[in-house]
Amino acid sequence: METRTRTDSRLVWWLTGLTPLIFVLTHYLAVLPHEFSHSVTAWTLGIKNEPGNIDWGGSSLWNITLLAHIDENVDYTAALAAGKNTQVAVVAFAGLGIGNLLPYLLVRFGLVKRTWLARRPVVLYVLFWYFFSSLANLYDYVPMRNFAPDGDVTHFVLASGMSRWWIFVVGTWGVIWAITDLYRDILPYTLGTCRFEPERIARALVLVLTVGLMFAYFALPALLETEPVTLFMGRFSLVLIPVILVATWRRNVLSPLPSPALLPTANDRLSPVEARHRS
C-alpha cells in the first residue's frame, strides 16, 4: 500500500507539472476543429473555394502557443451581400456547434466516466483538459462576446435574423449549467480518479489554473473589444475569479474526492468459481 501511495503521488505531481503543456495541446485540439468546421462547412455550402486555407494568424509566440490570431478565412460579408443567408448562418454556427459543443456533449455524457478511462488516469486527465477547453471556448463566445460587433454570434444573427437576446439568455443558461457541473462534478471526479486525494496543494493548483484560464484567459477577447456590453462582460468575468474560487474550494481542495476506480485485481481475472475458491 505504501509503495502504491508513493507511485500515485509521483503520478499526481507529474500530471500537475505537465498541466500547462497538456492545456496548450488540448487547446489546439479544441480550436483547430472550431476553425476547420467553419472552413469546411463554408466550402461544402459553396461560399468558400478551398476547405483548408484557414488563416493561421502569424508566427508570434502568442499565436503559436495559444492560437490567438487564427481565423477560418471565410468572407461572410460577401456571402451576405450575395443573399446566401442560410449558408452563412450554418457556417457561423458550425464552429461552436461542431467544433466545441458536440465534443463537449460527447465527452460529458458518453466518455468521461467510463470504467476504461477510470483505470487510465493519465488518459482521463488529458481528456479532462480537452473537455475543459471545449467548454471554455463556448464561454468565450456566449456570454462573453454575444454582443460583440464581429464574430460568430454576429455572423449568425445577421444571417438568421435571430435576436441576440435569445442567444444570450438560452446560451448563458446552458454555459452556467455546464460550468457549475464542471466544478461540482467533473473536476472533483477527475481529481479523485487521477489519485489527487491526499495532495491538496496539487488539487489547489489545478483548481486555480482552471478558474484563471476560464475567467481570465478566455475573457481576453472580450476585454479587447470596445463595444460596452462586451467589455463589461470581460471585466465581470475577472471579478468572478475570487467568487468562483471561494465557492469551489471546499469541494475540490478540502473535501474527500470520489474514490478512484481500482485497477483489476488477480481475482478480477479469474472465473467466478476460481475466485470463490481463492477467497
Report what the structure shows.
The protein contains 12 helices and no strands. It starts with a helix and ends with a helix. Helix 1 (2-44) packs antiparallel against helix 4 and helix 4 crosses helix 7. 35% of the residues are buried. It is mainly alpha-helical.
How would you sum up this structure in a few lines?
With 279 residues, the chain is mainly α.
What's the SSE blueprint?
Blueprint: H1 2-44, H2 61-66, H3 76-81, H4 85-111, H5 115-118, H6 121-141, H7 152-160, H8 164-193, H9 200-215, H10 220-223, H11 228-254, H12 272-278
Helix pairs in contact: 1-4, 1-6, 4-6, 4-7, 6-8, 9-11
Looking at the structure, what is the overall shape? Answer: globular
Strand share of the residues?
under 5%
Q: Which class of secondary structure composition applies to the elements? A: mainly alpha
Order of helices and strands: HHHHHHHHHHHH
Residues in helix, %: over 70%
Low-confidence stretches: 263-279
Number of strands: 0
Could you give the distance between the termini? Answer: 20 Å
What Rg, in angstroms, do the CA atoms define? 22 Å
* Chain-averaged pLDDT: 92
Major β-sheet profile: none
Number of helices: 12
List the keywords:
72% helix, mainly alpha, 279 residues
